[in-house]
Protein backbone atom coordinates (compact mmCIF):
# COMPACT_ATOMS: atom_id res chain seq x y z
CA UNK A 1 0.00 0.00 0.00
CA UNK A 2 1.23 3.43 -0.87
CA UNK A 3 2.63 5.60 1.93
CA UNK A 4 1.14 8.65 0.17
CA UNK A 5 -2.42 7.50 0.86
CA UNK A 6 -4.35 8.84 3.81
CA UNK A 7 -3.85 6.51 6.82
CA UNK A 8 -7.59 5.85 7.09
CA UNK A 9 -7.77 4.89 3.42
CA UNK A 10 -4.84 2.53 3.91
CA UNK A 11 -6.69 0.81 6.75
CA UNK A 12 -9.80 0.51 4.58
CA UNK A 13 -7.73 -1.08 1.81
CA UNK A 14 -6.29 -3.55 4.32
CA UNK A 15 -9.81 -4.43 5.48
CA UNK A 16 -11.11 -4.82 1.92
CA UNK A 17 -8.25 -7.10 0.93
CA UNK A 18 -8.79 -9.25 4.03
CA UNK A 19 -12.44 -9.64 3.12
CA UNK A 20 -11.54 -10.30 -0.52
CA UNK A 21 -9.21 -13.11 0.48
CA UNK A 22 -12.06 -14.81 2.36
CA UNK A 23 -14.39 -14.35 -0.60
CA UNK A 24 -11.86 -15.78 -3.06
CA UNK A 25 -11.32 -18.86 -0.91
CA UNK A 26 -15.06 -19.43 -0.61
CA UNK A 27 -15.50 -18.97 -4.36
CA UNK A 28 -13.31 -22.01 -4.99
CA UNK A 29 -16.13 -24.20 -3.65
CA UNK A 30 -19.15 -21.94 -3.66
CA UNK A 31 -21.62 -24.84 -3.62
CA UNK A 32 -20.54 -25.68 -0.07
CA UNK A 33 -21.21 -22.16 1.21
CA UNK A 34 -24.17 -21.98 3.60
CA UNK A 35 -26.90 -19.63 2.40
CA UNK A 36 -29.80 -18.02 4.23
CA UNK A 37 -32.62 -15.92 2.82
CA UNK A 38 -33.33 -12.56 4.48
CA UNK A 39 -36.43 -12.08 2.34
CA UNK A 40 -37.58 -13.22 -1.09
CA UNK A 41 -34.62 -13.04 -3.50
CA UNK A 42 -32.41 -11.37 -0.85
CA UNK A 43 -29.67 -13.71 0.29
CA UNK A 44 -26.89 -13.73 2.87
CA UNK A 45 -24.13 -16.30 3.08
CA UNK A 46 -21.64 -17.27 5.72
CA UNK A 47 -19.09 -15.59 3.46
CA UNK A 48 -20.91 -12.23 3.75
CA UNK A 49 -20.82 -12.61 7.52
CA UNK A 50 -17.17 -13.69 7.71
CA UNK A 51 -16.08 -10.90 5.35
CA UNK A 52 -18.00 -8.31 7.37
CA UNK A 53 -16.38 -9.51 10.61
CA UNK A 54 -12.91 -9.30 9.04
CA UNK A 55 -13.60 -5.73 7.88
CA UNK A 56 -14.99 -4.59 11.23
CA UNK A 57 -12.15 -6.20 13.19
CA UNK A 58 -9.55 -4.49 11.00
CA UNK A 59 -11.22 -1.08 11.18
CA UNK A 60 -11.90 -1.11 14.92
CA UNK A 61 -8.42 -2.39 15.74
CA UNK A 62 -7.06 0.74 14.07
CA UNK A 63 -9.85 3.12 15.11
CA UNK A 64 -11.73 1.79 18.16
CA UNK A 65 -13.56 5.08 18.64
CA UNK A 66 -15.19 5.01 15.20
CA UNK A 67 -18.75 3.98 14.43
CA UNK A 68 -19.87 1.16 12.12
CA UNK A 69 -22.85 0.86 9.79
CA UNK A 70 -22.73 -2.54 8.10
CA UNK A 71 -25.19 -4.40 5.91
CA UNK A 72 -25.45 -7.55 8.02
CA UNK A 73 -24.94 -6.24 11.58
CA UNK A 74 -26.11 -2.65 11.28
CA UNK A 75 -24.79 -0.49 14.14
CA UNK A 76 -24.13 -3.39 16.50
CA UNK A 77 -20.38 -2.72 16.60
CA UNK A 78 -18.30 0.39 17.06
CA UNK A 79 -19.00 3.65 18.86
CA UNK A 80 -22.59 4.86 18.79
CA UNK A 81 -21.96 8.61 18.80
CA UNK A 82 -18.83 9.07 16.70
CA UNK A 83 -18.50 11.64 13.91
CA UNK A 84 -16.56 8.94 12.03
CA UNK A 85 -18.74 6.12 10.65
CA UNK A 86 -17.56 3.27 8.41
CA UNK A 87 -20.26 2.19 5.94
CA UNK A 88 -19.72 -1.41 4.86
CA UNK A 89 -21.11 -3.81 2.30
CA UNK A 90 -18.93 -6.91 2.72
CA UNK A 91 -20.15 -8.64 -0.45
CA UNK A 92 -22.17 -6.57 -2.89
CA UNK A 93 -23.53 -8.96 -5.49
CA UNK A 94 -24.27 -11.94 -3.21
CA UNK A 95 -26.70 -13.50 -5.70
CA UNK A 96 -23.98 -13.45 -8.36
CA UNK A 97 -21.51 -14.95 -5.87
CA UNK A 98 -23.71 -17.91 -4.90
CA UNK A 99 -24.20 -18.73 -8.59
CA UNK A 100 -20.49 -18.59 -9.34
CA UNK A 101 -20.82 -15.46 -11.48
CA UNK A 102 -17.67 -13.41 -10.71
CA UNK A 103 -19.30 -9.98 -10.56
CA UNK A 104 -19.25 -8.85 -6.92
CA UNK A 105 -17.18 -6.64 -4.68
CA UNK A 106 -16.35 -5.33 -1.22
CA UNK A 107 -17.48 -1.76 -0.53
CA UNK A 108 -16.16 0.38 2.34
CA UNK A 109 -16.68 4.10 2.87
CA UNK A 110 -15.87 6.45 5.73
CA UNK A 111 -18.36 9.21 6.49
CA UNK A 112 -17.19 12.11 8.63
CA UNK A 113 -20.09 14.14 10.01
CA UNK A 114 -22.29 12.62 7.32
CA UNK A 115 -20.01 13.38 4.37
CA UNK A 116 -18.17 10.58 2.55
CA UNK A 117 -14.42 11.24 2.80
CA UNK A 118 -12.75 7.94 1.85
CA UNK A 119 -13.89 5.04 -0.35
CA UNK A 120 -12.73 1.59 -1.37
CA UNK A 121 -14.44 -0.76 -3.81
CA UNK A 122 -12.51 -4.01 -4.23
CA UNK A 123 -13.26 -6.65 -6.85
CA UNK A 124 -11.50 -9.74 -5.47
CA UNK A 125 -12.03 -11.95 -8.52
CA UNK A 126 -10.10 -9.50 -10.72
CA UNK A 127 -7.93 -7.97 -7.98
CA UNK A 128 -9.20 -4.55 -9.04
CA UNK A 129 -8.90 -1.94 -6.30
CA UNK A 130 -10.85 1.32 -6.71
CA UNK A 131 -10.02 4.03 -4.16
CA UNK A 132 -10.85 7.67 -3.54
CA UNK A 133 -10.25 10.36 -0.95
CA UNK A 134 -12.22 13.60 -1.10
CA UNK A 135 -10.23 16.19 -3.00
CA UNK A 136 -7.53 13.77 -4.11
CA UNK A 137 -9.12 12.03 -7.09
CA UNK A 138 -10.16 8.46 -7.82
CA UNK A 139 -7.88 5.58 -8.72
CA UNK A 140 -7.96 2.05 -10.09
CA UNK A 141 -4.91 0.04 -9.02
CA UNK A 142 -2.90 3.26 -8.46
CA UNK A 143 -3.89 4.68 -11.88
CA UNK A 144 -5.94 7.88 -11.92
CA UNK A 145 -9.38 7.35 -13.44
CA UNK A 146 -11.89 9.75 -15.00
CA UNK A 147 -15.48 9.43 -16.14
CA UNK A 148 -16.06 9.05 -19.87
CA UNK A 149 -16.26 12.02 -22.24
CA UNK A 150 -19.24 10.81 -24.25
CA UNK A 151 -21.86 13.50 -24.59
CA UNK A 152 -24.66 11.91 -26.62
CA UNK A 153 -26.90 9.25 -25.12
CA UNK A 154 -26.92 7.31 -28.39
CA UNK A 155 -23.22 6.54 -27.86
CA UNK A 156 -23.52 5.55 -24.21
CA UNK A 157 -23.53 2.33 -22.22
CA UNK A 158 -25.81 2.59 -19.19
CA UNK A 159 -25.94 0.20 -16.24
CA UNK A 160 -28.86 -0.50 -13.93
CA UNK A 161 -30.30 -3.29 -11.83
CA UNK A 162 -33.68 -4.96 -11.85
CA UNK A 163 -35.97 -4.75 -8.81
CA UNK A 164 -35.92 -8.06 -6.96
CA UNK A 165 -37.54 -7.57 -3.55
CA UNK A 166 -41.21 -7.86 -2.66
CA UNK A 167 -42.79 -4.43 -2.87
CA UNK A 168 -40.34 -3.09 -5.48
CA UNK A 169 -42.04 -1.24 -8.31
CA UNK A 170 -41.20 -3.48 -11.25
CA UNK A 171 -43.62 -1.74 -13.62
CA UNK A 172 -42.03 1.66 -13.00
CA UNK A 173 -38.58 0.22 -13.61
CA UNK A 174 -39.69 -1.30 -16.90
CA UNK A 175 -41.12 2.06 -17.87
CA UNK A 176 -37.76 3.68 -17.13
CA UNK A 177 -36.03 1.08 -19.28
CA UNK A 178 -38.54 1.75 -22.04
CA UNK A 179 -37.56 5.43 -21.93
CA UNK A 180 -33.81 4.77 -21.79
CA UNK A 181 -33.12 1.75 -24.00
CA UNK A 182 -34.09 3.17 -27.42
CA UNK A 183 -31.90 6.22 -26.77
CA UNK A 184 -28.61 4.53 -25.79
CA UNK A 185 -26.03 2.16 -27.26
CA UNK A 186 -26.77 -0.49 -24.64
CA UNK A 187 -28.02 -1.25 -21.12
CA UNK A 188 -26.29 -3.67 -18.75
CA UNK A 189 -27.46 -5.16 -15.44
CA UNK A 190 -24.35 -6.62 -13.76
CA UNK A 191 -25.94 -7.05 -10.30
CA UNK A 192 -23.50 -5.19 -8.02
CA UNK A 193 -24.30 -1.51 -7.63
CA UNK A 194 -21.02 -0.54 -5.96
CA UNK A 195 -19.12 -2.02 -8.90
CA UNK A 196 -21.48 -0.28 -11.35
CA UNK A 197 -20.59 3.06 -9.77
CA UNK A 198 -16.88 2.23 -9.82
CA UNK A 199 -17.20 1.46 -13.52
CA UNK A 200 -18.87 4.81 -14.15
CA UNK A 201 -15.92 6.45 -12.37
CA UNK A 202 -13.49 4.55 -14.59
CA UNK A 203 -15.39 5.39 -17.78
CA UNK A 204 -16.33 1.76 -18.49
CA UNK A 205 -20.00 2.73 -18.19
CA UNK A 206 -21.26 6.19 -19.06
CA UNK A 207 -24.15 6.27 -16.63
CA UNK A 208 -26.07 4.36 -13.98
CA UNK A 209 -29.52 4.42 -12.38
CA UNK A 210 -31.15 2.21 -9.77
CA UNK A 211 -33.94 2.27 -7.18
CA UNK A 212 -34.23 0.48 -3.84
CA UNK A 213 -30.55 0.74 -2.91
CA UNK A 214 -29.29 1.09 0.66
CA UNK A 215 -26.60 3.48 1.82
CA UNK A 216 -23.95 0.74 1.94
CA UNK A 217 -24.62 -0.03 -1.75
CA UNK A 218 -23.77 3.48 -2.91
CA UNK A 219 -21.64 5.28 -0.30
CA UNK A 220 -18.19 4.26 -1.57
CA UNK A 221 -19.12 4.27 -5.25
CA UNK A 222 -20.59 7.76 -5.05
CA UNK A 223 -17.27 9.26 -3.93
CA UNK A 224 -15.45 7.39 -6.69
CA UNK A 225 -17.77 8.97 -9.26
CA UNK A 226 -17.48 12.54 -7.99
CA UNK A 227 -13.70 12.32 -7.54
CA UNK A 228 -13.48 11.04 -11.13
CA UNK A 229 -15.29 14.13 -12.40
CA UNK A 230 -18.82 12.74 -12.54
CA UNK A 231 -22.11 13.58 -10.86
CA UNK A 232 -24.25 11.45 -8.60
CA UNK A 233 -27.62 12.12 -7.00
CA UNK A 234 -31.27 11.13 -7.01
CA UNK A 235 -33.41 11.01 -10.14
CA UNK A 236 -34.21 14.72 -9.96
CA UNK A 237 -30.52 15.57 -9.78
CA UNK A 238 -30.30 16.46 -6.10
CA UNK A 239 -27.03 15.48 -4.43
CA UNK A 240 -28.53 14.51 -1.05
CA UNK A 241 -29.40 10.96 -2.09
CA UNK A 242 -27.54 8.48 0.12
CA UNK A 243 -30.56 7.32 2.10
CA UNK A 244 -33.28 8.07 -0.46
CA UNK A 245 -33.20 4.66 -2.17
CA UNK A 246 -32.75 6.08 -5.67
CA UNK A 247 -29.40 6.73 -7.26
CA UNK A 248 -28.24 8.04 -10.61
CA UNK A 249 -24.69 8.74 -11.78
CA UNK A 250 -22.77 9.62 -14.91
CA UNK A 251 -20.44 12.04 -16.55
CA UNK A 252 -21.92 15.57 -16.38
CA UNK A 253 -23.52 15.53 -19.84
CA UNK A 254 -24.97 12.04 -19.52
CA UNK A 255 -26.19 12.79 -16.00
CA UNK A 256 -28.13 15.76 -17.34
CA UNK A 257 -29.71 13.63 -20.05
CA UNK A 258 -30.74 10.98 -17.52
CA UNK A 259 -32.27 13.56 -15.19
CA UNK A 260 -34.42 14.84 -18.04
CA UNK A 261 -35.55 11.29 -18.85
CA UNK A 262 -35.97 9.80 -15.38
CA UNK A 263 -36.71 12.74 -13.12
CA UNK A 264 -40.46 12.15 -13.48
CA UNK A 265 -40.05 8.72 -11.84
CA UNK A 266 -38.44 10.16 -8.69
CA UNK A 267 -40.25 10.11 -5.38
CA UNK A 268 -39.41 13.83 -5.32
CA UNK A 269 -40.93 14.60 -8.72
CA UNK A 270 -43.65 17.21 -9.00
CA UNK A 271 -47.29 16.26 -8.65
CA UNK A 272 -47.90 16.64 -12.38
CA UNK A 273 -45.05 14.32 -13.31
CA UNK A 274 -46.18 11.73 -10.77
CA UNK A 275 -49.72 11.83 -12.08
CA UNK A 276 -48.48 11.40 -15.63
CA UNK A 277 -46.40 8.38 -14.67
CA UNK A 278 -49.33 6.80 -12.78
CA UNK A 279 -51.61 7.30 -15.75
CA UNK A 280 -49.07 5.83 -18.18
CA UNK A 281 -48.52 2.79 -15.97
CA UNK A 282 -52.26 2.28 -15.58
CA UNK A 283 -52.76 2.46 -19.34
CA UNK A 284 -49.94 -0.03 -19.89
CA UNK A 285 -51.49 -2.40 -17.35
CA UNK A 286 -54.89 -2.13 -19.01
CA UNK A 287 -53.35 -2.78 -22.42
CA UNK A 288 -51.48 -5.81 -21.08
CA UNK A 289 -54.65 -7.24 -19.53
CA UNK A 290 -56.55 -6.76 -22.76
CA UNK A 291 -53.86 -8.24 -24.99
CA UNK A 292 -54.51 -11.97 -24.36
CA UNK A 293 -58.16 -11.66 -25.40
CA UNK A 294 -57.18 -9.91 -28.62
CA UNK A 295 -54.12 -12.01 -29.36
CA UNK A 296 -54.90 -14.62 -32.01
CA UNK A 297 -51.32 -15.84 -32.49
CA UNK A 298 -51.87 -18.87 -30.26
CA UNK A 299 -55.22 -19.85 -31.76
CA UNK A 300 -55.63 -23.30 -33.25
CA UNK A 301 -54.82 -23.30 -36.98
CA UNK A 302 -57.82 -23.49 -39.25
CA UNK A 303 -58.62 -26.92 -40.68
CA UNK A 304 -57.31 -27.34 -44.20
CA UNK A 305 -59.86 -27.02 -46.95
CA UNK A 306 -60.60 -30.34 -48.64
From TrEMBL:
<protein>
    <recommendedName>
        <fullName>Inositol-1-monophosphatase</fullName>
        <ecNumber>3.1.3.25</ecNumber>
    </recommendedName>
</protein>
<dbReference type="InterPro" id="IPR020550">
    <property type="entry name" value="Inositol_monophosphatase_CS"/>
</dbReference>
<keyword id="KW-0479">Metal-binding</keyword>
<keyword id="KW-0378">Hydrolase</keyword>
<dbReference type="InterPro" id="IPR020583">
    <property type="entry name" value="Inositol_monoP_metal-BS"/>
</dbReference>
<dbReference type="InterPro" id="IPR022337">
    <property type="entry name" value="Inositol_monophosphatase_SuhB"/>
</dbReference>
<dbReference type="Pfam" id="PF00459">
    <property type="entry name" value="Inositol_P"/>
</dbReference>
<dbReference type="InterPro" id="IPR000760">
    <property type="entry name" value="Inositol_monophosphatase-like"/>
</dbReference>
<keyword id="KW-0460">Magnesium</keyword>
<feature type="region of interest" description="Disordered">
    <location>
        <begin position="283"/>
        <end position="306"/>
    </location>
</feature>
<comment type="similarity">
    <text>Belongs to the inositol monophosphatase superfamily.</text>
</comment>
<dbReference type="InterPro" id="IPR033942">
    <property type="entry name" value="IMPase"/>
</dbReference>
